[in-house]
Amino acid sequence: MTPEAMVRELMISDVRRAADILRPVYDASLAVDGYVSIEVAPDEAQDVDATVAEAKTLWATIARPNVMIKIPATEAGYQAMREVLAEGINVNVTLIFSPQSYERVAAAYCAALEERLTRGLSIDRVASVASVFISRVDTVVDALLQERLQSAPAAEAKRLKSLLGRAGISNAQRIYQRYKDLFRGKDFARLRARGAHPQWPLWASTSSKNPAYSATWYIDRLIAPDTINTVPPQTFQALLTHKPKALLEAEIAQSLAVHDGLRREGIDLPQILDTLLDEGLASFLRSYQALTARLAHKKGILTI
Questions:
Q1: Is residue 70 among the annotated active site residues?
Q2: Catalytic annotation, pick one of 56, 70, 180, 186
């Protein structure tokens, strides 16, 4: 086997086993919970046909109803996810950063459900989540704020410090507001009446990259109905001794103030979010290539 084929086989094996472990959760929740995700190869993120073909192959090979295929929110990804969802394949749309990107993802999901209805197909077991990345936003924005803090007078320094660690959360709050508008309103009501599940927001990249923030900084501020948080191991350990606080909706009024504050400082958040998508794709690809290279090295050693 090629190293690339070995990577896929290992991933498929792990995901299949995890799906089997979580199958009772999936069954008991009537297909609401208990999902496991596997991503398409990141080097195909800009190719619609290749993404759709691999999603279909992974879905058929794993053969578990509680699996989601991860497709990045690129220009090609919007079309690919609609085609895949219309085939009844569950999708985890990943690398969402901006509210505009989120709206296109939600539109693709609803369009796929509508297409299934026109084809006389059921929509009650089609599942999807919209994965929004959080702490990566603050890594970039906080660095820009820290630069300004070095030469800021006391009054301005206080204002700048109030923005630290808030950009990613504020962005997520705006996306959650759009979720409520789109999926709790009358436009989605007809699909819901036919059995459709809303496409829940999933908060990704929620570990605290800055040691100045508590381990649960992004957990407390992202708790709200109809949301999922993918918690890394170190954050999960912190949660075991922490009483969570559901602050997302309680702090929603701060969202606009944070965005206004960033604009006053000349920080172009939309441009940063676009750049982060490109960097996220590159990071996924580097990780994939590094794993493939390690397997190729080990294969070479074992076959000498």
A1: yes
A2: 70
